[in-house]
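Allow me, if you will, to draw on your knowledge of protein folds for a short while. I have a record of one protein: its chain in single-letter code and its fold written as discrete structure tokens. I should value your view on which stretches of the chain appear to form regular backbone elements. Thank you for your consideration; the sequence and its tokens are set out here:
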Amino acid sequence: MQMISTSAAADNAAFFAAIANAERRALHSYFDQHVVADDEAGYITIDEGDYGALPMTIIDRIVHSVPGGLLDEY
């Protein structure tokens, strides 16, 4: 078990966990995956397709984006 001793290290771990989650989700989605900074949860991953047009309150908090991995072109 890994112990995280500082809040900076915990924040860093949460950030990279959210990026890994976004990269996994993007492989199976037509939509971009965004990592959003959240005051309560640290970092969350959202699928752009779940929200339609993203409001500016969310856009302003995006810290990383991963493009969707599926294409509709055959």
